[in-house]
Q: What sequence folds into this?
């Protein structure tokens, strides 16, 4: 397939693998965090770990929107969906996320909630137009990539004068999460994790550009290489990171030049800015309260804000005791370190959110890589 | 057709709709059976119109029986409809046991208000498929449910057939060292159905591969009577069949990604929708497992048959107490091919 096969070429991959193996220095470790779940998925699906030398260790980051959503937020979505007259439109990924009382949106649907799976925010808007008698709520989740489309439908709903459409906004931001991870490490203690470099976000960076990582790289002295989601992109980025680490550099480099510029998509940024503003605080699963790390709907669009429309109050709910999602999202633990991984917690019966989305570290490892941990024992 | 004077009015197959009388056991039901089902399926056993069909069985071999319910949405899709699918589905289940299908039974659950024109189209397609397959529908049943209690039409078909002496096809026969073959391009049916779903709708030239495969299996068993296992990768796609095989025979499987036959259009649609062709349904493909020594001969026979033109050897069976299905990726790494989680796409067959 054109424009796809070029980035999945096994021969090129093996050549890159040989170069990486040649350039890593004996005794030196290369602990690289891929921030995005998209990268985690690519690494597992294409078996990249088989191509990397032992010194290069990939650490899965928190860049999976479904994974970092705290239970309290899913509880609110379920509460909304169970209200008579309300239709909750959601991306498929959130359907099976475990919430309180052994519920999930999927189980709420079986209890009679009107939950509909949509492929885009505009599907939700269309449903609102087609069904004026129902309250349509779009359950908006995701990083900077999915935020502009949510902004667009809010603006469209305002222009159309729709009175039955609102958005339950859970959009979060990447750079503050990266900073938070580094701060946790700088503080030492149980929450710290050793990282030598970052495989930077792919689609997020098409929107925000590479500039927002510059201060981060400089301040924390960690190299960042923005990488595409195809397996060759990841391999090439790993090589670029290995070279930076060898040279003692900590720059922001852009491997994904075919889509990412330094300033990103400014039209999308303006749209986001028009509709959303920073939330003072947002509770992330795994990272806890992170200041200025999420968005809320501006007052001008308050009519379309489901939190205000339905008076949603966030309630913090602790993760299940056995679940290691939090430590896995911080990069401290590997999925196979979790006691319930693969036995009590599977993609069919998930306990933690990392086992749900295909971008979640546990789901990716369970689906594509668990034969490796059997080999180890 | 309606004999003059025997019923009040002919059925309006142009504008009429199914109503509750069509399933109530009265005159309207008898008329529907005669004018639609008997007229189209048209065979001696059905014309006797008894509650069951009596037939003699050829000597030798073992009998095989299979049943399959069809609830596909939409009812009509590129390359087929629920009618031909209902014939192919059950014929293939009999064929995958190594059997030669003989007869079918068909049971219809109709929803009140369903257009008779569409029902006629479905029954005609079903009759055509049965005739092409050489497997007549010899008995059946019709029920009507109130509006809102069904979704147009559901069809259950049951088939019987004969497995010749000397043929023993079962997943339990699979052994380490065996080769795995597939009869052609993967994922066509699922992608054809997806292209019509209301919230996905995209244009594609892909048609469902729905087809009866007993001709192909007969040719294969003729050449290699010792085929270890056969299965058609419908819901859950190739991945589901591989995991069933691994679990049922306590072995591991290693597939070669480079060897998997997938059309570029199917690959592109899957790429766009975030699906994996390994998990997408097929309705006219089969997977065969045989000894390494038989593999090349079996492949050659398959490729000579029109339904096996694109056949390929895609992997092998290994010794693995964990029963993992793995794949050597084109990229050079190795990954698992696990069971499908949840539903990739509901009601595809």
A:
């Amino acid at each position: 397939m054109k424009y796809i096969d070029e980035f999945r070429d096994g021969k090129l991959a093996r050549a890159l693998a040989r170069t990486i193996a040649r350039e890593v220095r004996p005794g030196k470790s290369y602990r690289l965090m891929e921030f995005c779940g998209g990268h985690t998925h690519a690494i597992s699906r294409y078996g990249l770990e088989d191509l990397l030398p032992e010194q290069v260790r990939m650490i899965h980051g928190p860049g999976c929107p479904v994974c970092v959503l705290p239970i309290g937020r899913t509880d609110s979505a379920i509460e909304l969906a169970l209200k008579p007259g309300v239709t909750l439109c959601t991306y498929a990924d959130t359907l099976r996320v475990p919430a309180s009382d052994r519920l999930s949106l999927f189980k709420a649907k079986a209890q009679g909630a009107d939950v509909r799976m949509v492929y885009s925010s505009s599907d939700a808007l269309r449903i609102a137009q087609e069904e004026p008698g129902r309250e349509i709520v779009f359950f908006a989740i995701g990083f900077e990539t999915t935020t502009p489309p949510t902004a667009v439908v809010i603006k469209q709903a305002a222009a159309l004068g729709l009175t039955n459409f609102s958005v339950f906004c859970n959009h979060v931001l990447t750079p503050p999460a990266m900073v938070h991870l580094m701060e946790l490490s700088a503080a030492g203690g149980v929450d710290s994790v050793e990282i030598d470099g970052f495989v930077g976000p792919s689609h997020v960076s098409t929107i925000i550009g590479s500039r927002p990582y510059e201060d981060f790289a400089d301040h924390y002295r960690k190299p960042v290489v923005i990488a595409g989601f195809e397996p060759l992109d990841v391999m090439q980025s790993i090589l670029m990171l290995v070279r930076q680490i060898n040279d003692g550099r900590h720059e922001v480099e852009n491997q994904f030049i075919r889509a990412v510029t330094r300033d990103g998509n400014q039209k999308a940024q303006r749209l986001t800015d028009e509709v959303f503003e920073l939330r003072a605080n947002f509770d992330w699963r795994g990272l806890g309260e992170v200041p200025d790390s999420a968005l809320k709907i501006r007052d001008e669009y308050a009519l379309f804000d489901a939190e205000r429309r339905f008076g949603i109050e966030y309630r913090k709910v602790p993760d299940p005791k056995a679940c290691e999602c939090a430590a896995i999202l911080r990069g401290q633990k590997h999925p196979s370190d979790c006691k319930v991984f693969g036995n009590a917690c599977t993609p069919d019966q998930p306990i933690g959110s990392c086992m749900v989305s295909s971008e979640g570290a546990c789901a990716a490892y369970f689906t594509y890589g668990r034969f490796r941990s059997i080999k180890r024992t | 057709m309606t004999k003059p004077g025997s019923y009040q009015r002919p059925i309006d197959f142009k504008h009429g709709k199914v109503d509750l009388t069509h399933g109530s056991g009265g005159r309207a039901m008898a008329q529907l059976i005669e004018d639609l089902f008997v007229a189209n399926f048209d065979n001696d056993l059905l014309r006797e119109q008894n509650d069951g069909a009596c037939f003699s069985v050829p000597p030798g071999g073992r009998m095989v029986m299979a049943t399959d319910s069809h609830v596909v949405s939409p009812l009509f899709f590129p390359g087929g409809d629920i009618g031909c699918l209902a014939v192919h589905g059950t014929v293939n289940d009999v064929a995958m046991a190594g059997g030669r299908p003989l007869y079918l039974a068909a049971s219809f659950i109709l929803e009140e208000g369903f257009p008779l024109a569409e029902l006629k189209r479905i029954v005609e397609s079903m009759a055509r498929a049965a005739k092409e397959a050489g497997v007549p529908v010899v008995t059946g049943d019709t029920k009507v449910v109130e509006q809102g209690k069904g979704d147009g039409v559901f069809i259950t078909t049951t088939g019987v057939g004969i497995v010749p002496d000397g043929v023993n096809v079962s997943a339990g026969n699979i052994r380490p060292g065996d080769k795995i073959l597939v009869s052609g391009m993967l994922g066509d049916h699922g992608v054809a159905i997806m292209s019509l779903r209301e919230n996905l709708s995209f244009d594609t030239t892909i048609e469902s591969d729905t087809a009866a495969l007993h001709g192909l299996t007969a040719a294969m068993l003729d050449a290699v009577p010792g085929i270890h296992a056969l299965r058609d990768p419908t819901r859950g796609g190739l991945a589901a069949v591989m995991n069933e095989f691994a679990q049922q025979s306590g072995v591991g499987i290693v597939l070669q990604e480079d060897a998997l036959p997938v059309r570029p259009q199917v690959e592109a649609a899957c790429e766009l929708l975030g699906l994996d062709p390994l998990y997408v349904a097929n309705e006219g493909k089969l997977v065969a497992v045989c000894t390494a020594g038989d593999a090349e001969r079996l492949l050659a026979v398959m490729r000579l048959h029109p339904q096996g033109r694109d056949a390929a050897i895609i992997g092998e069976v290994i010794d693995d107490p964990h029963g993992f299905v793995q794949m050597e990726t084109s990229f050079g790494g190795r990954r698992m091919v696990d069971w499908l989680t949840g539903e990739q796409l509901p009601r595809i067959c």
